[in-house]
Amino acid sequence: MQSVVTFEKPLPHLSLPDWDARLYGLQVTADTRRADAFDLRHSAHQLRNETKIKTEWDSYHNNNRLRARVYEIEQWKSTLQELLDRLDREMSALKEEKASTERELEQLNMPLLVCSECLSNRDGRRSSELTYDLADTELKKELCVTESNKKMLIDRCQSAWEKINKLEVVKFKLQLDLNDKNEALQIDKDMLNLDKDCANITYKTDSLKTPKRMITYEQWLEKCEATKKMAMDELQDTLRLRESLFVARGRARNALRAQTDVTNYMMRRRIYDTQRARNELQWQKMKMEENMDKLASELKTIGEQFADKVNALKVAETRLETRGYRPGIELASDEADVGLKEEVRNLRETIRQLQEKQDCAKATYNALEAASIKIAIDLNDKEQSLETDMQALEMRTALEPKRPQGTDKNLILASMKDEVPNIEN
């Protein structure tokens, strides 16, 4: 095989002016390209510097904004946490006040039972002793005061129960808001620690979109202020309610104590009046019996005198009648006859007077006996009434407050009762 040798076509020869023009054109093109490259490098350097500075400043400002937001959320979180703690304390205090009021309400059952029992027993009095006296009036007043106190304490307990339920709702809202703030705070802290060197950064689709639930900062601030105001208002209402519970218990105790003292005084006064009336009736009965004994003795004496005068009259009439049988002229109206007739007339008048006096004495005796029977009946009624009032007063001793003795009294006077543990025997 023989190789074929080929020859390239020679380029046309340029003239010197064309060569100079071509050289000049290459120089101009090179200078232009270098100038463009310089401008491009300069503008790129400037752009890099500007974008770097802007990016750093934007990142700095946003970091500061995130720090400010974290600080603000922490402040609100601290405020809400403090409100939540105060709310828990107020709820505990309100529950204690409610429990104390319920115990006070249960303690009213004893005065109510004692007062009703006293009224029921006093209704068993007999005859004229069943009167609307001051003790009966004060017992009914005490019953009304006890019922009024009971109704007032029931209303306060109902208000406390409703307030506790409302505080539970407010507590739930505060906890929900705190949970949201804790989650938002954690997110903002994570974003504050996020930088370009982190591994979990990626492109996001439509990162500039606005969520549907997003609200403005002013609305968020208004909601926070509203939550705070709601909690503060409830705390103030709870404080006033606790004070009203304490005042209601004290007012109920004082009113019942005052009415109990008045009722006890009226009961003792009624017992004193009944005892005085009983003593008076006993004295009257004793005097009646003495007079009846004397009158019975007098009646016996009058009867004896009456029988003696009757016998004397029989003697005189017998003499006078027998002397009427004298014979002849011996039947004369002599001094003996006149004397006997006068004696008969005197004896008959004496017997008549004795009979009248005896009838009057018997009537007086019967009146004394009837009065004595009435006094005895009234005395028995007063004895029964006195026994009833004494039993009622003895029953009311259960309403007297237990006064501390010995060490307990010293602890109360020294205000150390709550500091010393209560040891049950």
From TrEMBL:
Protein location: Cytoplasm, Cytoskeleton, Cilium axoneme
Similarity comment: Belongs to the tektin family.
Gene Ontology biological process: cilium assembly; cilium movement involved in cell motility
Cellular component annotations (GO), alphabetically ordered: axoneme; microtubule cytoskeleton; nucleus
Keyword Cytoplasm carried by entry: yes
Keywords: Cell projection, Cilium, Coiled coil, Cytoplasm, Flagellum
Organism whose genome encodes this protein: Euphydryas editha
Regions annotated as coiled coil: 73-111, 278-305, 337-396
Protein name (Swiss-Prot/TrEMBL): Tektin
PANTHER family assigned: TEKTIN (PTHR19960)
Main location as per UniProt: cytoplasm
UniProt-listed InterPro entries: Tektin-like, Tektins
